[in-house]
UniProtKB/TrEMBL annotation:
PROSITE patterns: DEAD_ATP_HELICASE, HELICASE_ATP_BIND_1, HELICASE_CTER, Q_MOTIF. GO terms for cellular component: cytosol. This is ATP-dependent RNA helicase DbpA. It comes from the Bacteria. Belongs to the DEAD box helicase family.
């Protein structure tokens, strides 16, 4: 049975699955949820984009008790970007359950503000190991009632050197808990931490016949360094042609200065592009990802900081402007496309000195390396996104809800419902995707009319 209603789920979660358009369980959900709901520890291997967040999310929410206010679930993620996405997904899954409080704790945000958010214990905490451990050691986070620990993308956390922090965190947790460990790969180190932290786990490998290798078309172009930008424009123009309209793309460079250089070039050529790398402040990185996710940006140019944790369900194209340094990095890059059953294209630009590395990457994917001819077009890839992002200087602290903002936009704001995209609300501000052609007019109206009879500062992100 692959219907969520076939499981012993509380009615709110069955309704949530239906509201999210989850008609049937994915393989990872069908294989892991029965064991999770039965209270077993699970060691799960599943590809990125397979639906594992819903698997452990529905599992931990199913046994959640909103009264009293006690922290009952902890989800550890390797990066801030993934933690934000997991937190947002869990909030959406929990929407039909009244009064569920979730807090995201990651580096890059003030400790004091996070500590204040923990004064009333959240039911669910999602975060990165270092910041979670810091709050535990300071006594800000109380976990004596914890029921569920989730280690998401555990292999990546080990690669990033988090094992000592994870060990210390587990030392604060009740022994009588359920531990769910998900990993894309099962190296010996994963089995070691499973043996340390889990009790007789159910080992589940979720596979599907149309996995990433079948859904992603890989293309390799031979170029010189001087030819890269011209070929890149041809590749982007070809993607727009194939999609018959607006199509987003994620580009990877190995160096931060190359990210900025490629981003500037594309913007000068009429392609709406944003840059993402470690030199950016955390808030700026969050806003770049948000604009890409809500279609306020056509092209995201990034270092491998974005190779994990970026979840755009319908991303048709990934381009390695610089060939990945190793096979694992290449695998994670191309895994950003071909997600959730969609097909995708992964293009790699290879200089003559990278031929041997390209051969190894292709061999690891079971491919015979055939060099493709460059796309036959004029490289005119001018692409402007359909949406723009409004920033409202008010958030959850001001009791703003998505319904309040939507009502203001479709009322005094003068928009039709289809002109409004994603609405994301943080503690102090809200981000709203609206039709680009109407963004300035809507901004001006909201400044005058306000929301819930209150006036907020409103701007267009990036203007």
């Amino acid at each position: 049975m692959t219907d969520f209603a076939s499981l012993a789920l509380r009615r709110e979660l069955i309704d949530s699955a239906a509201a999210r358009g989850f008609e049937r369980m994915t393989p990872v959900q069908a294989q892991t949820l029965p064991a999770i709901l039965a209270g077993a520890d699970v060691l799960g291997q599943a590809e990125t984009g397979s639906g594992k967040t819903a698997a452990f999310g529905f599992g931990l929410l199913n046994k959640l008790t909103v009264d009293p206010d006690r922290t009952q679930a902890l989800v550890l993620c390797p990066t801030r970007e993934l933690a934000d996405q997991v937190g947002q997904a869990l909030r959406q899954f929990a929407a039909p359950i009244a009064n569920v409080k979730l807090v995201i704790l990651c580096g890059g945000a003030p400790m004091r503000a996070q500590a204040q958010s923990l004064n009333q214990a959240p039911h669910i905490v999602v975060g990165t190991p270092g910041r979670i451990l810091a709050h535990l050691r300071r006594g800000h986070l109380q976990v004596d009632a914890l029921q569920t620990l989730v280690l998401d993308e555990a292999d990546r956390m080990l690669d990033m050197g988090f094992i000592d922090d994870i060990q210390a965190i587990v030392g604060h947790l009740p022994a009588a808990r359920q531990t769910l460990l998900f990993s894309a790969t099962w190296p010996e180190s994963i089995r070691d931490i499973s043996a340390r932290f889990q009790r007789d786990p159910k080992q589940i490998t979720a596979t599907r016949g149309d996995g990433p290798a079948q859904r992603i078309t890989q293309i390799f172009h031979r170029v010189t360094e001087a030819e890269k930008l011209a070929v890149l424009e041809r590749v982007l123009a070809d993607s727009q042609r194939r999609q018959r309209g607006f199509a987003q793309a994620l580009l990877f460079c190995n160096r931060r200065d190359d990210v900025d250089r490629v981003c500037r070039h594309l913007n000068n050529r009429g392609v709406s592009a944003l840059a993402l790398h470690g030199d950016r402040e955390q808030r700026e990185r969050d806003e770049v990802l948000l604009r890409f996710a809500n279609q306020s940006c056509a092209v995201l140019v990034a270092t491998d900081v974005a190779a994990r944790g970026l979840d755009i369900p319908s991303l048709p194209l990934v381009v390695s402007v610089d060939l990945a340094r190793d096979i694992e990095t290449h695998t994670h890059r191309i895994g950003r496309t071909g997600r959730a059953g969609e097909s995708g294209r992964a293009v790699s630009l290879c200089t003559p000195g990278e031929r041997d590395r390209a051969e190894r990457i292709a061999a690891a994917a079971g491919l015979r390396l055939n060099w493709a001819a460059w796309p036959d077009n004029d490289g005119a890839a001018r692409a402007q996104p359909p949406m723009a992002t409004l920033v409202i200087q008010g958030g959850r602290r001001d009791k703003l809800r998505p319904g309040d903002i939507l009502g203001a936009l479709t009322g005094e704001g003068g928009l039709d419902g289809h002109d409004v995209g994603k609405i994301e609300i943080t503690t102090v501000r809200a981000y709203v995707a609206v039709a680009r052609s109407k963004a300035k007019a809507v901004r001006d109206r909201l400044r005058q009319s306000g929301i819930k009879k209150r006036r907020f500062r409103v701007s267009i992100l990036g203007d």
